[in-house]
Write a structure and sequence with these properties.
Shape: elongated
Number of helices: 9
Family: Belongs to the precorrin methyltransferase family.
Function: Siroheme synthase involved in methionine biosynthesis.
Structural class: alpha/beta
Protein name: uroporphyrinogen-III C-methyltransferase
Distance between the termini: 59 Å
Strand content: 15-25%
Strand order of the largest sheet: 1-4-3-5-2-6
CATH superfamily of the largest domain: Tetrapyrrole methylase, N-terminal domain
Enzyme class: transferase
Largest sheet: 6 strands, mixed
CATH topology of the largest domain: Cobalt-precorrin-4 Transmethylase, domain 1
CATH architecture of the largest domain: 3-Layer(aba) Sandwich
Number of domains: 2
Radius of gyration: 21 Å
Number of strands: 11
Keywords: Amino-acid biosynthesis, Methionine biosynthesis, Methyltransferase, Porphyrin biosynthesis, S-adenosyl-L-methionine, Transferase
Length: 293
């Protein structure tokens, strides 16, 4: 069967990976396990999978998907390297544009059915479920059903992504604060832009599909200078991770020339050059910051 992460189907709205493909024992093969489940109250864990590299999973997340879960419900963005660790039935939602609502509803239905059967359910999400990942909405949904979820935090790409590209979000004398924003509001609306603060690093998630409009808003509404350093980190922690560096004024043209490979994060601020190896570049950064104080 083709790995569903590589080829998410348009219909049905989820993918099913047969348990025997992972060489594990199914419930049908283990009557004693089936009897135990019939007497068990369903449990659910909301788990963050981190940026994608299995080595960056927490131990709690690793144990949950390899030994604890009876079923795992994952989003398409969870890396195939992590999905191959799952040792039970796996469903992957199709949340492509236009399918988000139906894909989310399918996950709710599958989870509800499994919980009422007394199964242990893992809801696996990329990064951290509560950093623009609808974790709070899902938590409240399952609580309303009578199942209090256990939260297992994940390493958010908003923090790990920049670091994996040698970009610290804070740096003495350069950035004393950082802000994480979404580039896409509810129902694909345009969120309010943060105003420019020289000593702040701003990280945008889910923003690169509207990069040109975002940059325009940053300059015209947020007061961001066009010479401010920026970076795009694509596929953070993957083997083909790539970092594109430019400025506010040049990033749109740079991406048009280099192309873009999702998923990615957009980082704005002087911290993008804080660990630069070029001494002239570092001096230029210091001079630019000094002129704004």
């Amino acid at each position: 069967m083709v790995n569903p992460y590589d080829s998410p189907p348009a219909s049905p709205r989820y993918s099913y990976v047969e348990p025997h493909q992972r060489q594990t024992q199914t419930l049908e093969q283990a009557p004693s396990q089936r009897d135990d489940i019939s007497r068990r109250i369903g449990e659910i864990k909301l788990i963050g999978a981190g940026p994608g590299d299995p080595d960056l999973l927490t131990m709690a997340a690793y144990k949950a998907i390899t030994t604890w879960a009876d079923i795992v419900l994952a989003d398409k963005l969870v890396s195939k390297e992590i999905l191959t660790l799952v040792s039970c039935p796996l469903f992957i939602a199709n949340k492509d544009k236009g399918c988000q609502a139906s894909g989310q509803q399918e996950l709710f239905e599958r989870a509800t059915q499994a919980l009422r059967q007394g199964l242990r359910v893992v809801r696996l999400k990329q990064g951290d479920p509560f950093i623009f990942g609808r974790g709070g909405e899902e938590f409240l949904f399952f609580r309303q059903l009578g199942f209090e979820p256990t939260i297992v935090p994940g390493l958010s790409s908003s923090i790990s992504g920049p670091l994996l590209a040698n970009i610290p979000l804070t740096h003495r004398g350069t950035a004393s604060q950082f802000l994480v924003c979404t580039g896409t509001g509810s129902n694909d609306s345009i969120p309010e832009m943060p105003t420019y603060v020289a000593h702040r690093t701003t990280v945008f998630l889910m923003a690169l599909h509207r990069l040109e409009a975002l940059v325009q808003d940053l300059v015209e509404l947020g007061g961001y200078p066009e010479h401010l350093p920026v970076a795009i980190v694509e596929r953070a922690s993957a083997k083909d991770q790539r970092c594109i560096k430019a400025t506010v004024g040049t990033i749109v043209q740079t991406v048009k020339e280099t192309g873009y490979r999702p998923p990615g994060i957009f980082i704005v601020g002087w911290a993008c050059e804080a660990l630069a190896q070029d001494s002239n570049q570092i001096q230029g950064l210091t001079d630019s910051l000094a002129s704004e104080i």
